[in-house]
Amino acid sequence: MSSTNNDAPGRSPESGPPTGEAAILASLQNGLRAIPGSLPIATTLSHIGEHAIGWVTLSAAGAALQPERRTEWMTAGVGAFSAHAASVVVKRIVRRKRPHHPAIKIGVGTPSKMSFPSSHATSTTAFALLAGKATGNPRLAFWVPATLIPAMLASRLTLGVHYPSDVMGGAVLGAASAAAAGRFAPEMFERATAAGLLPGALTTSKDAR
């Protein structure tokens, strides 16, 4: 996706200083962009999280590298994808427009003009919570979400494509999606494996139960 500027098509002209959440976003963005390397990191995270493709890919890699925890990694992939799908449904219901005040710098293109919730925040939160547990390492179960979720939320503000409430709402929806996937996906995989619909042993490891 190519970077855009404040004169990009679709931005509504506004005069005067930003108010409300737009003012909060403009202030946060200025602070975040002052951090060295924040913009390229935010852009990279944007590409990885687009449509949850990066998270699904990493989940598949985890399943291949840790076959004994294949169900947990597949659950992480399903959780990320379903979280993204849920965010799209909510966006179509809420139909909130993305930030468009000239004081806010837009740093990346977006596939839609709808803002709430942030799909990147939603799928990333679901993936991070489930992938951390999928590793089977208690420290990673904490540090993967503790590192990845704030980084993605901050990146959407850095790029100016979401309001703070968009990313927070996405994180809440992502956490709920992770909980649902963790509850139902393993049983679904086990039944599919028993029925011969999925190859290999996809039973959940005892330490993950």
Automatic annotation (TrEMBL):
Its main location: membrane. It is a multi-pass membrane protein. GO terms for molecular function: hydrolase activity. Keywords: Cell membrane, Hydrolase, Membrane, Transmembrane, Transmembrane helix. Residues 1-21 are annotated as: Disordered. It holds the Pfam family PAP2. Residues 73-182 form the Phosphatidic acid phosphatase type 2/haloperoxidase domain. The keyword Kinase does not apply. It is found in: Cell membrane. This is Phosphatase PAP2 family protein. The keyword Transmembrane applies.
